[in-house]
Amino acid sequence: MWAFAHILSGARIGRDCNICDHVFIENDVIVGDRVTIKCGVQLWDGTTVEDDVFVGPNAAFTNDSFPRSKQYPLQFQKTTVRRGASIGANATILPGLTIGEEAMVGAGSVVTRDVPPHAIVVGNPARIKGYVGAQIAESEVTSVSAQPGIRQTSVDGVTIHRLPRARDLRGALTFGELGTHVPFEIKRFFIIYGVPSREVRGEHAHRELHQFLICVHGSFHLVVDDGRTREEFRLDDPSIGVHLPPMVWGLQYKHSPDAVLLVLASAPYDASDYIRAYDEFRRLCVSRL
Q: Choosing from 6, 22, 181, 204, which is the catalytic residue?
């Protein structure tokens, strides 16, 4: 605890924390272990900061969407900063949001929506610019041999497939055959299009489902994660497919305005097959080791 830090009696502070000058922490606040809170930060009622979080100087938290002088809500909105996240200097976090595990909020950003795990967000309003630890391998996608074939990636089970294609004066054609080019029997397909470029799609894993993704028009970025390794690809060629096996966390972002994504799936829709919380996904990955 450094000079002029003010911590109310109801707050809970973990071990090995560094709470710097002029920090104010209200009663209904939980701070985990090994947290660094730099100078000039206020943590208001309803804020939870998990283990290993860094909060930069003068970052501003809020807990009331419609504040009025001397008027208080029955309950303040809850803000959660998940394990290992970092918030840059002078960032503003609107109330009721979750900053995901190991996410990074750039200095001066105004966060108006939940931040996914590992996302890097910057700007006002904050937008996703990348993902922590996801080495962008778009050059590896575009460098896949022109001949049909399969390339392994660093993410367990994820493969990149160059599909057969033909081109002449009439245009181009790409095709695939079950068992030869698509490694599972197709039971369902869906198409994603008209996505505003700021939106993130996916953000889940499947317990049993296989998927085969093809960007049939435009472009988008695909991030895949097996719980240990993360990789990012830019897909912009309808002759390239990516196989996502079960127990791989996947998401798409940076859609071009004309992006069209075709997804082939190995089973009909089953809500119970989805893993939508990254924390749960990580626990299941650990249990499989």
A: 204
